[in-house]
Amino acid sequence: MRDVCVVGLGLIGGSVLRAAAAAGRAVWGATASGQDAEAARADGFDVRALADALARARDRDALVVVAVPLPAVEEVLRQVPDGVRVTDVVSVKGPVGDLVRRVAPLVRHVGGHPMAGTSASGWAAGRADLFRNAAWVVTAEEDTDLDVLTDVVELALDAKAHVVPTTAVEHDAAVARISHLPHILAAVLASVGADGGPLALALAAGSFGDGTRVAASRPELVRAMCEGNRTALLGAVDDALGRLGAARGSLASTGGLAKTIEAGHRARQALHDLQSAERTDLTIDLTSPQALEALRALGARGGRIIGLTGNTALARTS
Amino acid sequence: MRDVCVVGLGLIGGSVLRAAAAAGRAVWGATASGQDAEAARADGFDVRALADALARARDRDALVVVAVPLPAVEEVLRQVPDGVRVTDVVSVKGPVGDLVRRVAPLVRHVGGHPMAGTSASGWAAGRADLFRNAAWVVTAEEDTDLDVLTDVVELALDAKAHVVPTTAVEHDAAVARISHLPHILAAVLASVGADGGPLALALAAGSFGDGTRVAASRPELVRAMCEGNRTALLGAVDDALGRLGAARGSLASTGGLAKTIEAGHRARQALHDLQSAERTDLTIDLTSPQALEALRALGARGGRIIGLTGNTALARTS
């Protein structure tokens, strides 16, 4: 098992460090937060200065996990020695890939995104099982280093997550639709409801409560997440504007909403079907020249890696 | 206690009949559904032909509860004898008020809307406690008959609901925002997510699940509800389009979403505050010339009637 060095010991980084340690790996970390460093050391973890932590990663051929917020990624990347294995857990993948190509083209980077989190933050909020049953996206581009990709798959499986392989572009487009747009629509719905005054809020029940739940999230976190995925999110918002505008036009002209409501019902059914479908297992040889293509095809079909034996990934698809 | 005659013995009407009976009232009903009639009779209820049920209501000065779908309301209203006390439980109030003025101007009608329901329908799905802790809207217009309004309040309280007084126009505008728009946005979000293909749906988690939950409702019920409130719903959709368009513009031009996200967070907080606020109790004399104005003011502040002693309503507001 490869050693793991985690840079950034907040909720996600702290949970990765704990999960890797729980799986029996040698682990150490670094963080710019004195509070997180102190708390992690108090819990018995090895926390070092960044340069020291990265030098040790180079010496031991460890996997470095960059778990700092997007604005801090560039500064960390600049300090990673060439040739070191690196992944990250930032919630957008295109901007991180761009940064790697620009400031650290010689590190062996594979993007990642464990799709778990809570509204809490900091080392104290983390836990070893944060990623249990979560999707952990791994980017598989044309030129991805399969050896490092295999490292990331192994780490994700150690954390009890399943792995969804895709490209950075596809990832960012998908999360814009299913993670970032929901926050914007929840904010819009909450505001339109509040515009109706206390009477409207007093009559609000299940549908309004469900539709606005994520508007209770911390605004600065929501903004950072959405604004960091600007390009892909614009596409998703335009799709929503087009569909909402069509509903408006149909309601105004014919009084009917059949197309909107029925399409929404079919789409929700598709989500249900995907989650409850019979599964087909397959294997992917991660040393094969076709491996990256097979991985991307797996992700595109809604499939995932659920196990690893040597260099053979056990995958499941509906 | 006034006798109650319920016309339409589906989920809502059947539950009103049971709740009124459970409160010790004399009750009887009528329904165009042979299946519902048979089931209600098998449960020991008095189900009659419509003309017979309405004649008995006139003779005993009972309260008639019209609990048929909106398209069937006109036909029922035409058969109600002049002077009879009538309420209804249709989910839009403006169109029902218009119908009463047009086809039954001499019945003593006060609109109502018990805000409870499930995805099930028919007599068998009903139950006496369906309205427990639910809001039951009662319309208090300039010319509302306070005597009949008091009857409806008494029935709603018997059913363990609390009463929210407002006008038909205000009711329809409020439910457009907090009940009908959520269904349209859920449909739009589900469709945009499904547009992202299996990958997007495979990555969908909490925010997408919450935001699309009501898209699983039966499309024909959602359509009937939304399309029946066309005028008010257009206003709510336009508000949402304006806010979503502003978010789009801001994201495209400056990359920022502060205004959208922060307004949504404040609005969701307002919902929480209203639901958890300290309450102030007050009383409203339902025989006073200012009663209708006081009732409307109560509803506008997010308040509700929680009890009735003689003609004095006990109200609660935040």
* Overall 3D form of chain A: globular
In the predicted model, the low-confidence regions of chain A spanning at least 5 consecutive residues are none
Total DSSP helices of chain A: 13
- Please write the string of helix (H) and strand (E) elements of chain A: EHEHHEHEHEEHEHHHHHHEHEE
Secondary structure category of chain A: alpha/beta
Main sheet characteristics of chain A: 7 strands, mixed
Range of strand content of chain A = 15-25%
Q: Tell me, what is the CATH class of the largest domain in chain A? A: Alpha Beta
Tell me the CATH superfamily of the largest domain in chain A.
NAD(P)-binding Rossmann-like Domain
Level of helix content of chain A? Answer: 40-55%
Rg of chain A, Cα atoms, Å: 21 Å
What's the structural domain tally of chain A? 2
The greatest interface here is: A-B, 97 and 97 residues
For this structure, the CATH topology of the largest domain in chain A is Rossmann fold
CATH-derived architecture of the largest domain in chain A: 3-Layer(aba) Sandwich
Quaternary:
homodimer
Average pLDDT reading of chain A: 95
- Alpha carbon gap, first and last residue of chain A: 30 Å
Q: What is the tally of beta strands of chain A?
A: 10
